[in-house]
Write a structure and sequence with these properties.
Length: 328
């Protein structure tokens, strides 16, 4: 605990936001539990001075093809607040039961990548692929390439929710992975195509590193779940904010499968992007006023402020995508 406090002081943590003060930027398609708009990735493109926002839509179960993570979209905006959709893909185009958070990355003025996570129809396990295009509005998912699958590492039952950082000419990819419990059978874990909602696997954050952003080597677990406590079921890195002497890291935690869709945000720090120290061992640092989810936070530094985009659980049970700006 003493070491963690020292790290917190040295890193000079980025200022956080009040989730109740956020502005709604993407609304769900309905006004009750099961309707979601969220899982954002945001990119500000200096080339055309445009914000690009990737997000996921979900409807309640029972909507046939239009349920779970049935569609993901990319929207553009000149002010970062009012967005217009410019690209979308439905899960049927991947022959998948669900698509989740993905990472939108600008490689150069002529090359953009979308690292997309979805349920592999071959084995019902989450996987990560990549598609490339000359603009965020022109991705063709039929040209996707494999990046990481569950079979790439022993005792892994799925990989999803990638977050990409370019550091020292290498690509660092953080992702949540399903680590099956000893008592769980593989068939039981994957019957529904959503191992994270079975209670049969925990979900720590792993790290893989690449020279070219295509061929990744699995490095290690970097944010593990705790042995007990509020984050013993999931510890998912969602964004990294550089500070003067290190990095402020935001991650989602949950105590058990009952909170699988209602995770809450916590903090960690890092100096090298390979080792991390959790700062919230007793509970989350952010949740809604009514104790519900603030999750999938992504952040960029723009015009002297941190722009936080996050998924927020409303009083009616639906999830919406919000933006909150905090001056540095």
């Amino acid at each position: 605990m003493e070491q963690t406090k020292t790290q917190e002081t040295i890193v000079n943590l980025a200022p956080l936001f009040n989730p109740e003060e956020g502005r709604t930027v993407i609304s769900p398609l309905g006004n009750e539990t099961g309707y979601w708009a969220g899982a954002p990735t945001v990119l500000f493109d200096d080339k055309d001075e445009t914000f690009y926002l990737y997000y996921r839509l979900r409807n309640p179960r029972g909507h046939g093809e239009d349920e779970r993570g049935f569609e993901v979209r990319i929207a553009s905006s000149k002010d970062g607040e009012n967005f217009t959709d410019v690209w979308s893909v439905h899960k049927r185009e991947l022959n998948s039961s669900s698509i989740e958070r993905s990472a939108l990355v600008k490689v150069s003025d002529q090359l953009y990548r979308l690292y997309i996570s979805y349920v592999d129809p071959a084995d019902n396990r989450w996987r990560i692929d990549v598609v490339e295009a000359e603009s965020p509005s022109s991705f063709q998912v039929e040209n996707r390439k494999k990046i990481l699958t569950a079979s790439d590492h022993p005792n892994v039952e799925g990989v999803k929710d990638p977050y990409i950082v370019k550091h020292e000419n290498k690509y660092y990819m953080y992702f949540v992975y399903a680590k099956g419990l000893d008592s769980a059978g593989s068939e039981e874990m994957h019957q529904t195509g959503d191992v994270h909602n079975t209670g049969l696997a925990v979900a720590p954050t792993g790290l893989a590193i690449s020279e070219d952003g295509i061929h990744f080597d699995w490095v290690d677990t970097v944010i593990p779940v705790s042995d007990a406590g509020w984050d013993q079921y999931q510890s998912r890195l969602t964004t990294i904010i550089p500070t003067q002497n290190g990095y402020t890291v935001l991650w989602d935690g949950s105590v058990g499968v009952e909170q699988n869709y209602e995770e809450k945000m916590a903090l960690a720090v890092s100096f090298d992007l390979r080792t991390f120290a959790k700062l919230n061992v007793d509970g989350p640092v952010l949740e809604t006023a009514s104790g519900k989810a603030v999750r999938y936070v992504d952040a960029i530094i723009h015009e002297g402020s941190i722009w936080y985009y996050y998924e927020y659980t409303r009083e009616d049970g639906a999830h919406e995508l919000r933006l909150c700006k905090v001056k540095i």
